[in-house]
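User: Design a sequence. Structure:
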């Protein structure tokens, strides 16, 4: 089957050459000058005019001795086209980035020639848009406009579409970080489980990505040595054996869909790992959860597309971070405008956190109580400038 190829370009910056590739030599030269700031008495202005030989000796020293932080000053803005959603998630889990990605909520899924999306996915996606529109209209037609209902229907129907579906993304990171990421991807490819179709497909996508990055002249083997043997941070093992803890810091385990995991990456102060489940499970949208016939139909349709890893497939997730950063997550996700699945999970974690703090008489128990009365508009330290006037949204009981 033909597939839309991943394409990677660089947006205009001081190191973009006329042929669209990266001027690595000039970037290394600048990093070499920056590396002298820590001990030059006269500062960077003096370093700008030093002999080039001195600059390059310093640059080569940092490249070869592992002192790579100066290469984080060199920022590159990548234009990623046709990148699989799961590969975008791999990138976004590494924290050191800024990204602007096409939203599946606002963009309908359209199967094009050469697309990885199958006919079954397209057919089921359109089928369930129709079903969700009817169900949402029945329960919330007095709340939402037809345009809003269409967007919500699309958001839920995309659970049936592969997590390998192509997306578009502007991705900014540093010269050091992109080299590190590529080195970790190479390790993933070399260690792939040939009996695991998901890993094989992801490794194939990583090879494409690396080939495109290589063409842009941003890779340098000296920045890719990986002496600390780091791995791609998104993948964990035996997550269900991780002990849960709630205090000044926390760690919790739960199941969530690929779609929800992608949403969590907006909270870069928190850490997430995922692990595929031994037996496949799927997220059931609450809007249909009380209709057994529709639930059975939904799960039956998931079986049709199970081999493409639909975005509604559940994975094991471990979430860790600091208490105050979790509260910041609550201030974004406990809202009637947030994706429902992550809102429900954030609510569940909040209640679990609250109970644990109360049981051990933690000083934080009094603080977390302030955030347990509903959506963020009920928080004493949050100002909402756009009142939704949606009761079920405010008390966190909405089904869509």
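Assistant: Done.
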């Amino acid at each position: 089957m033909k597939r839309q190829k991943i394409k990677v370009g660089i947006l205009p910056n001081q190191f973009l050459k006329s042929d669209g590739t990266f001027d690595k030599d000039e970037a290394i030269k600048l990093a070499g000058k920056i590396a002298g700031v820590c001990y030059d008495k006269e500062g960077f202005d003096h370093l700008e005019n030093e002999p080039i030989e001195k600059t390059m000796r310093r640059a080569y020293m940092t490249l070869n001795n592992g002192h790579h932080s100066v290469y984080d000053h060199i920022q590159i803005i990548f234009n990623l086209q046709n990148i699989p959603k799961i590969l975008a998630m791999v990138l976004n889990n590494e924290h050191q980035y800024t990204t602007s990605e096409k939203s599946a909520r606002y963009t309908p899924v359209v199967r094009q020639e050469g697309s990885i999306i199958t006919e079954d996915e397209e057919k089921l996606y359109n089928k369930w848009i129709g079903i969700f529109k009817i169900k949402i209209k029945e329960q919330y037609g007095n709340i939402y406009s037809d345009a809003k209902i269409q967007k919500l229907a699309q958001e839920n129907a995309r659970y049936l579409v592969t997590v390998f579906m192509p997306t578009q993304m502007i991705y900014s990171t540093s010269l050091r970080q992109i080299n590190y990421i590529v080195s970790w991807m190479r390790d993933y490819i070399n260690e792939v489980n040939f009996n695991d179709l998901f890993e094989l497909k992801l490794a194939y996508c990583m090879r494409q990505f690396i080939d495109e990055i290589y063409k842009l002249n941003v890779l340098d083997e000296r920045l890719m040595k990986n002496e600390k043997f780091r791995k791609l941070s998104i993948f964990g093992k035996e997550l269900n054996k991780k002990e849960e803890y709630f205090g000044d810091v926390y760690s919790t385990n739960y199941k969530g869909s690929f779609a929800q995991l992608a949403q969590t990456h907006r909270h870069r102060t928190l850490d997430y790992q995922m692990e595929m489940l031994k037996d496949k499970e799927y997220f059931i949208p609450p809007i249909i959860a009380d209709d057994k016939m529709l639930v059975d139909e939904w799960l039956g349709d998931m079986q049709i597309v199970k081999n493409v890893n639909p975005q509604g497939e559940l994975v094991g997730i471990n979430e860790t971070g600091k208490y105050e950063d979790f509260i910041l997550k609550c201030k974004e996700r406990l809202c009637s405008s947030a994706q429902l699945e992550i809102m429900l999970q954030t609510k569940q974690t909040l209640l679990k956190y609250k109970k644990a703090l109360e049981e051990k008489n933690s000083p934080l128990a009094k603080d977390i109580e302030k955030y347990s009365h509903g959506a963020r508009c009920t928080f004493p330290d949050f100002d909402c400038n756009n009142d939704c006037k949606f009761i079920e949204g405010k008390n966190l009981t909405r089904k869509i």
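The beta strands are 7-10, 75-84, 98-101, 166-174, 245-246, 249-257, 271-276, 314-322. The mean pLDDT is 94.
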